[in-house]
Every structure is written in structure tokens, then in C-alpha cells.
Amino acid sequence: MLDLNDKISKALIIKFLSECFHNPDKEQVVVLKDYKAKLPERFSDIIDKMDDAKELQVDYSKLFLGPFELLSAPYGSVYLEDGRKTFGDSTMDLLQLYDQEDLSLQFKELPDHITIELEFLYYLMVRELEFLDVDDLEQSNLYVEKQKQFMNRHLAKWVNDFANLVEENASCHFYRQIAICLKQEINEFQLIVN
Length: 194
Fold this sequence. Notes:
This protein has helices at residues 4-20, 26-34, 44-48, 53-65, 76-80, 89-100, 114-133, 137-169, 173-193. By secondary structure, it is an all-alpha fold. It has a single domain, classed as TorD-like (Orthogonal Bundle), CATH 1.10.3480.10. Helix 1 packs antiparallel against helix 7, helix 1 (4-20) packs antiparallel against helix 9 and helix 8 packs antiparallel against helix 9. It starts with a helix and ends with a helix.
């Protein structure tokens, strides 16, 4: 079981990882570098050795956009649906989870994009922390259960396959290291909530 400071740290790590899978233009690189002071020391080396924006954009395009083949498809449904299709039953289930939280989402990406799923996990973690802050343990525990449900039905079921492909296909040091961190953090989180 994590103490409050560990929960806050874990939430910031999840938020950072979600930011890592946005299009890495110059502004986004600045956002990522700003996390250095907020994250545990083990992330400093990754941020310090981050490739420049142009190299990141080339690798990002190759890994996540195509043009011919997605080397590391960033969509959960590709890993969860037969035939590697997008927007299947798993996506519809995910949309129900978002709807249960009354989240009005305007997606630039499909709703099961790695960034959006990590953002949703971060949201659930923040809600847990908000209820802890006001000593509402019942609601806080409800959000722990929601995290568990989300992880077991979605993110934890596909993130290792995705991260392995990123690690295998990335040219940039940054994406290889982020893939390793993503696997480690999600696997650790899975152990905590289960």
C-alpha cells in the first residue's frame, strides 16, 4: 500500500508518461523537460538525454503515425480486438467508463490512444487523492476500485505489447527509455491495485 506522497508521485509519473506520447513539437519538449523537477531522480537521465524535437518527431511519426504501417500502434483496440482493428468492443467499453465519470471528451485521437488512457488513469488517481484530502475514505476507495477495473479491462491488458514494440522499433533513446518506464510503472501499479 502506498502512502500519500507515493500516491502523488505515482500520479505525476503517469501524467508525465501520458505527455510523452503527444506529438513532440518544440512546445511539447519544453513541457516534458519541465517535469524533471517534479519526478523521482530516476527520470532525470531520460529527460537530460532527450533527443531534439526534430529527431523525436521523425521517430514519433515512424512509430505511431505510419504512413504505411504503424510500427507501434498506440491504440488499445489494436491489441485487444481480433484482426488488429480499431474502435471495436473494447473501445465501446472504454467510452462507457469515460461516460460513467461524466467526462465530456473531445478527442483528437481515438479514445483508446495510449495518451488518453494514461490521462484517464491519472484522472482516476487524482479523484482518489481529492477524496483522501477531505477524509472521504468510501469515495477514495471507490476510485481505487475504478483504477483496478480500468487497468484489468484495458490498459494493463495491452500496454506491455505496445511498449515492447516501441522499445524494439524506436530510433531515439528517449522513446526506448520511456517504453521501459511505461512497462515498469504500469506493472508496478497493477500489483498495487490488485
